[in-house]
Structure formats: C-alpha cells, structure tokens
Design a protein that fits this description.
Length: 383
C-alpha cells in the first residue's frame, strides 16, 4: 500500500479556498482547481518508491493485476480527482471510443502535433466521467427540451435572439437543437458578442432562472457559449449525489467541490465558455442532440457498508464508505487496483492513517482493511 503525494493543478477557474480547506492548510491566494490521483503522465501521483506510473510500468501485473491488464492494458485506466470549481468550466462534450480512435488516427496521419492548440484528439480513448458532490455543486448537463430553452431565451426580450427562438420551435427536436447550436457557433463573432452583451443585461435584470447566465457572461463576455448554455439542463447536486457524463453529452461545471473520476483521456470537444479552440464540425459530429432530464445518481448501499455509484462503463467504479464511531473493520482486498481517498474524519487504510484529502494506492491482490471513522471514497475498475 502506497501513500500518495498528489499534484494540485492551478487552472484559472479553480477555487482559491476549497481544496486548502479540505486539506486543512492555508490558502495561497492562487486558484487550486484539481488534485490528481493516479498515473496520468501529465501529473502522476508520487510514492516513496517513485511515481505511480513508474511503479506500474516496472511491473504492471503486480500493481494492476492480471484481470485489469488483460482488459485495459498495462496502465491504470482511470484518473481520480478532487475538483474545486470557483468559476465556470468550459462547455464541452467527449467522444465515444470509436470516435476517439478514428479522430486520433486521422490527426496522427495529418501530422498535427499533439500539443498544437487546434489538436482535438490527444489520445485514442474515450472520456466518460462521474462527479460526486462534496458540497452543493452546480452544473449544466444534457439538453433541455427545445420548448423550454425557447421560453428561457425569449424571456430575455433580445431581438437578435428571436430567430433562435423560432428555430427551437421546429420539429423534430433533435434537428432543432442541432441547427441552433450550429448557428450560435458559426455566427459573426462581433454580432454574437453584441447579442451576448444584451442578453447578459436582460438576464441580470430578470434574475431567478436567468441569473446563472448573467454570471456566465461576466466570466466569458461575448462568448456564444453563454447562449448555448441556455439549451442545457441546470443541475444542482447535494453532497453525496453524483452525475454520470457519457459520450456526446454536453456539460459544464459551474461551482462547487466534488470527487471526480474519469477514464484516462484528454479528449475534449469544446462548445464555448473558453478562449481555446472550438472544432465546430467535429463537435457537431460527436454531440448527441437528445433532450433528456439529467439522471442524478445516489449511491446504492451494500451489506458491507459500501455505497456504489452505478455507471455503465468498466474503466472505473466509484464507491464510498461513511464509517461511524465503532464501525467494524471492512476488508477491501481486491484483484484489481484501488485508490482510497479520505474526505472526512480520521480513517485508516491498513497501517496508514488518512486525514481529509489524503489517499493511498492499493496494488491488486494486496491485503487492505479499512478502519476508523470518517468518509472514504474507493476508486477501482470492473474487470
């Protein structure tokens, strides 16, 4: 069992206080957006024996187990994070596995450097995600019905938005959503910036359901993603609730602290709320234009006390243990690799005491017993 030393990424949208409060340390005044736990080459966790990716590369079967290596190859297939959004993240979607493989192969064949600003596919993997709230957590996920979006946009009373309102009343709904998003992302930038500015003033005046979009315009003035965000469902998670984000589902995190787990990939198709490259044709190919209510996940308890967040993919499995005073030890020994993350209390993994924000890596097959009190998230794979 290896205690992990993890990197905190200072992205501009990060909260300045949430991760320091979890760790019980003084804030630096700089944004602290994501704490990464895993073997991602961009910021692998460190152990006393070297970085986690070095340990896995040296003996993948020992660290990951035969099942995981056979199914996912000689790499840890997930990345676990603590995510702290102090400002909205970009509006985005992710490809499915076939799209990622094809897109990556095409860009490799075209000779586009992997670090080029206009590069879309950094790797050949898909990027399903799960976010579990540690505090009240706001986000956008999936399309509203076009009629709901039309009412929200029409209430702004902005003349230049009326054509979009009319398009949203067309049938079928999927075609209406596609046409509106296409029109927003291909509109004249100067005209769109003026429209967004007018919309922001109206949204600020109206408040209520429109207030989040005034805030988005404050962070991203003139960005067409402000209007595109009005096509999506607003989601408010309470602590312990989670949201699964599959391929093609447009989404954005707005504010809050959560535990996030994802397949190990950097493939992001941006739709707006960003100064970065937006690949409109590829985005429109990937996005699933299907109106649907977002499905908020609540954990399913097992007799062992493990509360599992059920998802349809195998690269990761996230669960938690909420251990009261006097709880019996829990055997976590597994044939697959695990990362255990404490978020409250003073639990103990094997002989390792864990404070909030601390984590350990448990190699496949290694004896692992959870004791003490507090809340611990468990990340592993289905293999």
């Amino acid at each position: 069992m290896e205690r992990l030393v993890n990197t905190v990424r200072p992205y501009a949208w990060g909260s300045t206080t949430a991760i320091p409060e979890l760790l019980g340390i003084a804030p630096t005044g700089e944004p602290q957006a994501e704490m990464w736990m895993g073997a991602h080459p961009g910021a692998p966790s460190r152990t006393e024996r070297g970085s986690l990716n070095e340990l896995i590369d040296a003996d993948p079967v020992r660290e990951l187990g035969e099942r995981s290596v056979e199914k996912f190859g000689p790499r840890l297939p997930f990345l676990l994070k603590v995510l702290a959004a102090g400002a909205p993240l970009s509006l985005q979607a992710h490809p499915d596995l076939d799209q990622a493989r094809a897109g990556h192969a095409a860009e490799e064949a075209a000779g586009i450097p992997v670090d080029a600003p206009h590069r879309t596919y950094k790797d050949a993997n898909h990027k399903p995600e799960l976010i579990c709230a540690l505090t009240p957590f706001d986000g956008l996920c999936g399309f509203r019905t076009p009629a709901e979006s039309a009412d929200l946009i029409a209430a702004l009373g902005v003349d230049s938005l009326k054509p979009y309102v009319d398009l949203l009343h067309a049938q079928p709904e999927e075609a209406a959503l596609r046409e509106v998003l296409t029109a927003l992302l291909t509109a004249d930038p100067e005209e769109m910036a003026h429209t967004v500015a007018e919309a922001a003033v109206a949204a600020d005046r109206l408040g209520g359901d429109h207030a989040p979009y005034a805030a988005l315009a404050h962070h991203y003035p003139g960005d067409p993603g402000v209007i595109a965000a009005m096509l999506l469902n607003r989601v408010r998670l309470q602590p312990g609730e989670a949201l699964y984000l599959g391929a093609g589902v447009p989404h954005a995190y707005l504010e809050g602290l959560g535990v996030e787990i994802m397949a190990n990939s950097d493939n992001v198709l941006r739709c707006g709320l960003t100064p970065k490259h937006v690949d409109v044709p590829e985005l429109l190919r990937v996005v699933r234009f299907e109106p649907a209510d977002p499905s908020v996940l609540r954990p399913e308890a097992s007799p062992s006390g493990e509360e599992v967040y059920d998802t349809p993919i195998d690269e990761f499995r996230l669960s938690r243990f909420v251990r009261p005073e006097g709880a019996a030890p829990t055997d976590l020994t597994s044939p697959t690799p695990q990362i255990l993350l404490a978020v409250a209390g003073r639990p103990k993994a094997g002989e390792v005491n864990l404070a909030p924000g601390e984590s350990v890596f448990v190699p496949a097959g290694e004896s692992a017993e959870l004791t003490g009190t507090g809340t611990v998230f468990r990340a592993t794979v289905v293999a």
